[in-house]
Fold this sequence. Notes:
By secondary structure, the protein is α/β, with parallel strands linked by helices. It has 16 helices and eleven strands.
Amino acid sequence: xxxxxxxxxxxxxxxxxxxxxxxxxxxxxxxxxxxxxxxxxxxxxxxxxxxxxxxxxxxxxxxxxxxxxxxxxxxxxxxxxxxxxxxxxxxxxxxxxxxxxxxxxxxxxxxxxxxxxxxxxxxxxxxxxxxxxxxxxxxxxxxxxxxxxxxxxxxxxxxxxxxxxxxxxxxxxxxxxxxxxxxxxxxxxxxxxxxxxxxxxxxxxxxxxxxxxxxxxxxxxxxxxxxxxxxxxxxxxxxxxxxxxxxxxxxxxxxxxxxxxxxxxxxxxxxxxxxxxxxxxxxxxxxxxxxxxxxxxxxxxxxxxxxxxxxxxxxxxxxxxxxxxxxxxxxxxxxxxxxxxxxxxxxxxxxxxxxxxxxxxxxxxxxxxxxxxxxxxxxxxxxxxxxxxxxxxxxxxxxxxxxxxxxxxxxxxxxxxxxxxxxxxxxx
Length: 428
């Protein structure tokens, strides 16, 4: 119950979803019923989106693109943070933000838990219009938990088992392909948004990875039960997320066969966990895959040490963006690495019951660690703010190094908004 309580207050949605009319359009619900992201003088979400939309066409990547995708595990690029890598991280963060903007949070809407509009061009309009990418497929995740037949006793939004979770997009603009140095395929996932996803989040114990997602020499690979359920569950009228994304990746690889390709899987919160599972699956299930990279924001733990080893052997690369004050990145379970006191703790745990082993996780990939308390522009350090994707983008945009955490100059969007507020106050 302690774990459930911690996660319940730190995932990216409200305990009781609110109508879209109760929040700035197109705002997503965050953590608590009064979702207050307090960036001092931040201004509207539209101003924020305008500020970051330029990152989708940031400076040239060119010959360094493989470094940015992690072929050298981002060695020497994270501390201090390479400016071009910063732009790439923010660019992929905007793909995730587009997934949030497209999701229908209105529980009274007939399209609740779906994309706001059926047309995939809508996704491009709200977030990817200037990116040089085209959306090729919408993705859905299905909850595998079987609830009692209470359809006549509970609201429909509480039992929505299948929900729109993100999309696949491919770079189709020749100028952008030249700037990137390759044709990039993006899979983007939003974070938790429905009650059924909440239930899956709370299934904290590890479960064996299915044989079709694990190599024969992988050993005892285990991942979080709820995340795997959302990734592999299906309904008669809707294929699993796993089947849909793998099918689309294979189709795009066949269409652009012979070209220089990359696959980037990105997500926030629950979406970060699904991104890690997706990258592992692509690297194992797709024949001769290109470089597969995960760029995750505020993700929870996903699997055990054997799962990490398998992912490393596939060649897939994982860059986790972590806010030290974000509780979601500290759950589920606990981490025990080899060596020193932690090794002795592991030996003690080996003598305990088997169920405890199902809570021993491992951190995966490389980490860019940030801290919201380093930013003078964040006026609130509550769990909602620390986990919000906008906080992550703000911290990435301002981070310099561990010795100099935040740029000395304020972000343009913050300064411009502050000036507008002063002007308005004088006019009054």
